[in-house]
Specification:
- Two copies of one chain form a homodimer.
- The first copy, chain A, has 371 residues and is of the alpha/beta class.
- In chain A, 48% of the residues lie in helices and 15% in strands.
- Chain A folds into three domains: 113 residues, Tetrapyrrole methylase, N-terminal domain (Cobalt-precorrin-4 Transmethylase, domain 1, 3-Layer(aba) Sandwich); 146 residues, Tetrapyrrole methylase, C-terminal domain (Methyltransferase, Cobalt-precorrin-4 Transmethylase, Domain 2), CATH 3.30.950.10; 87 residues, Substrate Binding Domain Of Dnak, Chain:A, Domain 2 (Up-down Bundle).
- In chain A, the strands form three sheets. The first copy, chain A, has a six-stranded mixed sheet, sandwiched between helices.
- About 4% of the residues of chain A have low confidence.
- Chains A and B meet through α1, α5, α6, α10 and α11 of A and α1, α5, α6, α10 and α11 of B.
Chain lengths: 371, 371
């Protein structure tokens, strides 16, 4: 039997009563430390609650869990527990090990623990249903691009983004805190500002409102919220850190941010306002230009038509005025659709209006568009 | 001092060691039951771990927590705990109470517990980073529409959707299971199929692959996965239930679904395939029609131009052929942009092509579009 035991986020004291009962009957206890904040004293704590020294808790490194063979072999004949930080199945490694066990007819059970992700969302006072996809930011620059895109998608939907930032234990046998690498929140934000300079979706600026959650679950947990420019000077201390880019805020969320975090700026700025769909950008840019082009074309046709006889060119121009009338209707439609959030119809309409105008342009060989 | 204590998802045995230490020093313990699965025997369990009967654990109903005045008043002078199912700050009610406490200078602390949401995601074997926005489905039909839209948004991003389904305790003083109302997963799925009939985004059909997670955290937890048509005959038993609509699946997720759930159909169907953006639907529907209209218009102009002299109408028609050539270029552009995932440009191009064609239609007073 293989037990996946979540230690929660309060050191070994995050273990549930149900988990302690299970550990007491286990022959072998592995404690995974790579993705974990469990210290040497936590290991001793696990041993003491498991039965006062009869069962040893063994530190294992990531490769040991990824390899998994020794764990699975032991679990075939003995009661084996794998203790991990947080909720055990959040890490893909553990979930995959469980599937392998099942395929090898080794029974598994999971004792869930408090999850860091859930705790961070809750501590922020933001509504959990308003979080979009969660993403992890590593220190390599490429990672920032995918984080940036996830934040963009979430903001378009008005949703918050939880960004977990890299932390790793560089020397698994060393409990010295210097062995832990944490990506600093200020560096992470700078990386996102760099991506903004390239991508220009208008997500990140000095005015963007963010929440930085540090060491959630530990005694010196701290949440700081404010605009990017206000956070620049803040020392966030040791990790793990995570960053929340807020979407549209409900007033109870604003109240919670003000009351429950170290709040440096009013939580009222809505980060979604700066983010415009490409469709909205198109209609906002093209509609005024198209209106001008219609006017320009009307003037040209009037001069042109006035100079000719009542038949011939003049007669043709009459049909062209009908085309321009329609173009104007569709420009208004595009603006109305945009205001209704019907983005595809808005783009279709502005494209259609441009086509109407340009058909005349091709026929008359004149350009009504201002550069 | 007001402690928010998460009981986790294993009855009172889901309490962490840290939570038990806190409960032991509390003068008053409120146990919230509305959003909770804590039974009478769990209440007795909480009392026994808190100090063997010296401190009573008091059932409280939802209105009592929402009102909150008695809790806050007590917390001004005493150590008060509010024990809730799962992770305490997931419920907005608790988060708001905490903000109110902070504004009234009442110190608060949170003991996180295993969260049902995190546990369900983990038990499914799906990767947590691939879940989009989580949504709750109530039994009233209107709720199904917003669930449907959330699933659509998530599928467009390739993401999974966790749908929590309604459960409530109709009589808070009655621990009889008949007092619990659970939305049946089959009914929830039928409601979503009904919305599909109206909205026609192509999300839900008998072939859609879903995971139903029932009673996660309890001893008779069960996860069933398969196509909608296969789930129709399954009795899911008592709740709480939740439903996962999978997005694009990684092969390790397929393996996990096959190994860790009662798997009725191969997890290979990709639910995102059926979901087409409105922009794609537009271009796919309009491009062939526009091609036909161009052809139709060419034929009309050729007959028209052939019957007239080399000047006049015929000369004008020549400019019109240039317009039709351009329409064809833009139809191809629309199809190319679509294949590149540049949806806005695809819609803009097809709209433009239609405008070019229709300018001629308005001028000539003829309709080249097949009904």
């Amino acid at each position: 039997m293989l037990w996946f035991v979540g230690a929660g986020i309060n050191g070994y004291r995050g273990l549930s009563l149900a988990a302690v009962e299970v550990l007491k009957k286990c022959d072998t206890i592995y404690v995974e430390r790579f993705t974990s904040l469990l210290s040497d004293s936590d290991i001793r704590g696990i041993e003491s609650v498991a039965g006062g020294g009869n069962t040893k808790a063994v530190h294992v490194q990531r490769w040991f869990v990824e390899d998994g063979r020794e764990i699975l072999e032991a679990a075939k004949t003995k009661n084996v527990a794998l203790v991990t930080y947080g909720d055990p199945l959040i890490a893909t490694t553990h979930s995959e090990l469980r599937a392998r066990a099942a395929r090898n007819s080794i029974e598994t059970q999971v004792l869930h623990g408090a999850s860091g992700i859930s705790a961070i969302m809750g501590e922020s006072g933001l509504h959990i249903y308003k979080f979009g996809r969660t993403v992890t930011m590593m220190s390599e620059p490429k990672s920032a691009i995918s984080v940036y895109n996830t934040v963009f998608d979430n903001l378009l939907a008005g949703a918050h983004t939880l960004i977990l930032t890299e932390y790793r234990r560089d020397d698994d046998n060393d409990n010295n805190k210097k062995g832990l690498f944490f990506l600093d929140p200020c560096q992470a934000i700078r990386m996102l500002l760099d991506v903004e300079r390239d991508q220009r979706y208008g997500i990140f600026s000095e005015e963007t409102f963010v929440v930085v959650a540090s060491r959630v679950g530990s005694d010196d947990q701290r949440l700081v919220s404010g605009r990017v420019k206000s956070l620049a000077g803040v020392g966030f201390g040791e990790g793990p850190h995570s960053i929340i880019i807020t979407g549209a805020l409900h007033f109870t969320e604003e109240d919670a941010l003000a009351a429950l975090t170290v709040n440096l700026d009013s939580p009222s700025p809505d980060n979604t306002r700066a983010v415009r769909r490409m469709s909205a950008q198109m209609v906002e840019r093209y509609a005024p230009k198209a209106k001008e082009a219609v006017q320009q074309m009307r003037n040209i046709l009037r001069q042109d038509g006035g100079g000719s006889n009542s038949s011939g060119e003049g007669k043709n121009n009459k049909g062209m005025f009908e085309v321009l009338d329609n173009a104007e209707y569709y420009i208004s439609d595009a603006e109305r659709f945009l205001s209704q959030g019907r983005h595809e119809l808005a783009v279709l309409s502005i494209g259609y209006a441009e086509g109407l105008i340009d058909a005349l342009r091709f026929q008359k060989g004149i350009n009504p568009w201002n550069p």
